[in-house]
């Protein structure tokens, strides 16, 4: 008689693609990149980011002679994606002795009574870890969740061309040391230094974001509320304190809180087109599964996807780091 593994509830089978997409794009940073169109799909290992730049040389408009001038430059930066998988074995028999036993079907049944909740929570957990890796990823890290690919912080620091905002030129009183740290008393100066340090040729664009951790974000909010300036920033569907986004007073720039920078004491600013992410989402192995294991009587959860990030123009980035 053949061994029968039974069937699962149809939740995962019917929602495999949405769950995989949720795992990748539910994090705030990647969701912003998706909305800005800087997520490249179809990357299985590496791909080139084509960077186009051109100038415009004015000439006298008189006469009949035309002299070609100006240069259009095409350069490339490489984005590398890493294969990532999450695997967990669930022994349904472990639930027999607990309060969940009343939710189990009678007799032997290798299905999960709370499959939908499990799948949603797992997707959220993956998205949360990916959000952190997007910023703090480091292929030399001993932390398995940070090791698959290099994140924005490492890429920016390795390029060595970002503008350092923690300098006397931008912060009154001079650079802020790690001994002092980011405080309610100095956080407004730090945030202002970020936009003051932006290269002149990108100042004023409405797609500029200044990213920080939620810890720094609420110190910034506190710095204003301590002065009873409760309405210093507009609210809306996206721009609101609850969503971790405020307009910096006197500018059109958005201070944006992301969990990927929590605890780092780092702030990063730049135009959104500068932040690029890559994934596959077209590969036959990129799947979300919750399936019976016919040999070990387990339910096996498995998700597989590829992901990586890159900075298009590192010299247009402003970076704050304590000295």
How many beta strands in the DSSP annotation?
13
Measured by DSSP, the beta-strand proportion falls in 15-25%
Which secondary-structure class do the elements indicate? Answer: alpha+beta
**Strand ordering within the main sheet:** 5-13-9-6-8-7
Radius of gyration: 25 Å
State the end-to-end CA separation.
70 Å
Share of helix, binned: 10-25%
CATH class of the largest domain: Alpha Beta
CATH architecture of the largest domain: 2-Layer Sandwich
The total tally of domains equals 2
Q: Write the element-wise H/E pattern from the N-terminal end onward.
A: HHHEEEEHHEHEHEEEEEEE
Give the uncertain stretches in residue-range form.
1-9, 98-104
Look at the structure and give the mean pLDDT. Answer: 79
CATH fold field value of the largest domain = Major capsid protein gp5 fold
**General shape:** globular
Q: Please, how many helices?
A: 7
Major beta-sheet overview: 6 strands, mixed
Secondary structure layout plus pairing:
Layout: H1 10-14, H2 16-25, H3 28-36, E1 39-40, E2 46-54, E3 72-80, E4 82-90, H4 115-136, H5 152-159, E5 163-164, H6 187-196, E6 208-212, H7 214-225, E7 245-247, E8 254-257, E9 267-271, E10 275-279, E11 288-293, E12 298-311, E13 318-320
Parallel strand pairs: 1-10, 5-13, 6-8
Antiparallel strand pairs: 2-3, 4-12, 6-9, 7-8, 9-13, 10-12, 11-12
Helix pairs in contact: 2-4
Give structural notes.
The protein has helices at 10-14, 16-25, 28-36, 115-136, 152-159, 187-196, 214-225; strands at 39-40, 46-54, 72-80, 82-90, 163-164, 208-212, 245-247, 254-257, 267-271, 275-279, 288-293, 298-311, 318-320. The chain has 323 residues and is an alpha+beta fold. The protein folds into 2 domains: 10-52 and 73-151 and 277-308, 2-Layer Sandwich (Major capsid protein gp5 fold), CATH 3.30.2400; 160-276 and 313-320. The strands form 3 sheets. Strands 5-13-9-6-8-7 form a 6-stranded mixed sheet. Residues 1-9 and 98-104 have low confidence and may be disordered.
